[in-house]
């Protein structure tokens, strides 16, 4: 495990680079989420892996 977040674009982000989020999930205790419009300078949301899994599961089920 790296001490630095390994950021990658979310697979649920749009093709427009201004409308996407990045996720760093290389820490087993915390998933980090940020808005790409902030160019890495904005706030970062930190959630547990269980909360992230519940959120992405809900998003998959609710996708239209």
Give descriptors for this structure.
alpha+beta, about 60 residues, 4-stranded antiparallel sheet, flat
Overview of the structural elements:
The structure is a single chain. The chain has one domain. It has 1 helix and 4 strands. It has one helix at residues 49-62; strands at residues 7-9, 21-27, 30-35, 44-47. The radius of gyration is 12 Å and the shape is flat.
Q: What is the H-and-E element order?
A: EEEEH
Mean pLDDT: 84
Q: Globular, elongated, flat, extended or rod-shaped: what is the shape?
A: flat
| Count of DSSP-assigned helices | 1
Query: What's the total number of strands?
Result: 4
SS-derived structural category:
alpha+beta
Tally of separate domains = 1
What percent of residues adopt helix (DSSP H or I)?
10-25%
Low-pLDDT runs of 5+ residues are none
- Rg calculated over all Cα atoms: 12 Å
- Main sheet attributes: strand count, strand direction, barrel closure: 4 strands, antiparallel
